[in-house]
Design brief:
- The protein has 114 residues and is mostly helical.
- The protein has one domain (2-112).
- It contains 6 helices and no strands.
- The protein has helices spanning 2-16, 21-31, 40-54, 60-74, 78-86, 92-112.
- The longest helix is centred in the last third of the chain and has 21 residues, at 92-112.
- The protein is elongated, with a radius of gyration of 18 Å.
Length: 114
């Protein structure tokens, strides 16, 4: 019975988690840029998913650090990147929160400064 379980898990892992697929997820993760109409939370979730798929065996702290850096670079907005840097966001969730606050501030500012 034990051998069947080991063989089954090995077969499932080789089918659904081949090691060569990790590189397939690293490329889009590193080249991800926020779309013009893409919402910040959607971007954050997409990056979290790509990092989880690209580094499935990495510790959660490492994945969170990589996701935060990837998120910051994908924003394609130097002022927002600077705001996140100044806020000392230590994980992707904090970076998303700061980015949302910054975007809300900028949208409100544009609305009333016209």
């Amino acid at each position: 019975m034990r051998t069947n379980f080991v063989q089954l898990t090995a077969a499932l892992a080789s089918r659904f988690q081949p090691e060569n697929q990790t590189e397939m997820y690293r490329a889009p993760m590193k080249s991800k840029i926020r779309g013009r109409t893409e919402q910040i939370p959607v971007l954050g979730q997409d990056i979290k998913r790509l990092v989880r798929l690209a580094y499935p065996s990495a510790p959660i702290e490492v994945r969170d650090y990589l996701a935060r850096d990837c998120f910051i670079h994908s924003l394609n907005d130097a002022d927002m990147e600077w705001a996140i840097f100044q806020a000392k966001a230590n994980n992707i969730d904090n970076a998303i929160q700061v980015a949302l606050e910054y975007e809300a501030f900028q949208n409100n500012r544009r609305k009333y400064c016209k």
